[in-house]
UniProtKB/TrEMBL annotation:
<dbReference type="GO" id="GO:0004644">
    <property type="term" value="F:phosphoribosylglycinamide formyltransferase activity"/>
</dbReference>
<feature type="binding site">
    <location>
        <position position="64"/>
    </location>
    <ligand>
        <name>(6R)-10-formyltetrahydrofolate</name>
    </ligand>
</feature>
<feature type="site" description="Raises pKa of active site His">
    <location>
        <position position="144"/>
    </location>
</feature>
<dbReference type="GO" id="GO:0005737">
    <property type="term" value="C:cytoplasm"/>
</dbReference>
<protein>
    <recommendedName>
        <fullName>Phosphoribosylglycinamide formyltransferase</fullName>
        <ecNumber>2.1.2.2</ecNumber>
    </recommendedName>
</protein>
<comment type="pathway">
    <text>Purine metabolism; IMP biosynthesis via de novo pathway; N(2)-formyl-N(1)-(5-phospho-D-ribosyl)glycinamide from N(1)-(5-phospho-D-ribosyl)glycinamide (10-formyl THF route): step 1/1.</text>
</comment>
<dbReference type="InterPro" id="IPR002376">
    <property type="entry name" value="Formyl_transf_N"/>
</dbReference>
<feature type="binding site">
    <location>
        <begin position="89"/>
        <end position="92"/>
    </location>
    <ligand>
        <name>(6R)-10-formyltetrahydrofolate</name>
    </ligand>
</feature>
<feature type="binding site">
    <location>
        <position position="106"/>
    </location>
    <ligand>
        <name>(6R)-10-formyltetrahydrofolate</name>
    </ligand>
</feature>
<dbReference type="InterPro" id="IPR036477">
    <property type="entry name" value="Formyl_transf_N_sf"/>
</dbReference>
<dbReference type="GO" id="GO:0006189">
    <property type="term" value="P:'de novo' IMP biosynthetic process"/>
</dbReference>
<feature type="domain" description="Formyl transferase N-terminal">
    <location>
        <begin position="3"/>
        <end position="181"/>
    </location>
</feature>
<dbReference type="InterPro" id="IPR004607">
    <property type="entry name" value="GART"/>
</dbReference>
<feature type="binding site">
    <location>
        <begin position="11"/>
        <end position="13"/>
    </location>
    <ligand>
        <name>N(1)-(5-phospho-beta-D-ribosyl)glycinamide</name>
    </ligand>
</feature>
<comment type="function">
    <text>Catalyzes the transfer of a formyl group from 10-formyltetrahydrofolate to 5-phospho-ribosyl-glycinamide (GAR), producing 5-phospho-ribosyl-N-formylglycinamide (FGAR) and tetrahydrofolate.</text>
</comment>
<feature type="active site" description="Proton donor">
    <location>
        <position position="108"/>
    </location>
</feature>
<comment type="similarity">
    <text>Belongs to the GART family.</text>
</comment>
Length: 203
């Protein structure tokens, strides 16, 4: 399955997916990594693995609509048939979501529907949660709201802050995101309303 990965930052989730693909554990090929940040380490990780790395500096575009159009064109031109958001910090425009309906995944570093939005690890730590975690979900027009594919949890305690929790959750992300991408690439994910169903393995 040809994938485009959108990233704005370090790209550790991208790296985990690249590694599992290279180990033959995911039946997919990353045809492009696209970032709104030209300096994103995610782009250099892509280049190091011979993957086309496309920077769309958002400041180069006169307005949101121009950026959104450039993003959709870049992803469609890459031949991607599914889109993986990996630390991508912009909302996708409705035409983009329509073009890849039910074929966009995102990872959120909290147990949705708790703690939607940004800086959620710090919010969870200061709330005093004793269980934190991550969620992989399909992306729809709302933020952090599409059908959930997989969740996983880690313990949290009073000594945690945003940073310690983010680090512990990131380790979890690097396990569950490649798993979700593998299921998507194997065509095993079906959506029924709010629910995602995992078909049995064809092995
Ligand atoms: C992580 O906090 C992750 O939860 C979120 O984006 C942040 C950076 O991820 N998806 P990455 O290292 O750029 O993959």
């Amino acid at each position: 399955l040809p994938l485009a990965v959108l990233a704005s930052g370090g790209g550790s989730n991208l790296q985990a997916i690249i590694d599992r693909i290279e180990e033959g554990k995911i039946a997919a090929r990353i045809v492009a990594v696209v970032s709104n940040k030209p300096q994103a380490r995610a782009l250099s990780r892509a280049r190091a693995h011979g993957i086309p790395a496309i920077a769309l500096p958002q400041d180069d575009y006169p307005d949101r609509a121009a950026y959104d159009a450039a993003l959709l064109a870049a992803v469609q031109d890459s031949g991607a048939q599914a889109v993986i958001l990996a630390g991508y910090l912009r909302l996708l425009a409705a035409p983009f979501i329509a073009a890849f309906r039910n074929r966009i995944l995102n990872i959120h570093p909290a147990l949705l529907p708790s703690f939607p939005g940004l800086r959620v690890q710090a919010a969870a730590a200061s709330y005093g949660v004793t269980i934190a975690g991550a969620t992989v979900h399909f992306v729809d027009e709302e933020m952090d709201s599409g059908p959930i594919v997989i969740q996983a949890a880690v313990p949290a305690g009073p000594d945690d802050d945003g940073e310690s929790l983010a680090a512990r959750i990131l380790t979890l992300e690097h396990r569950i995101y490649p798993q979700a991408v593998a299921w998507l690439a194997a065509g095993r994910l079906a959506i029924a309303g709010r629910k995602t169903r995992l078909a049995p393995s064809s092995l």
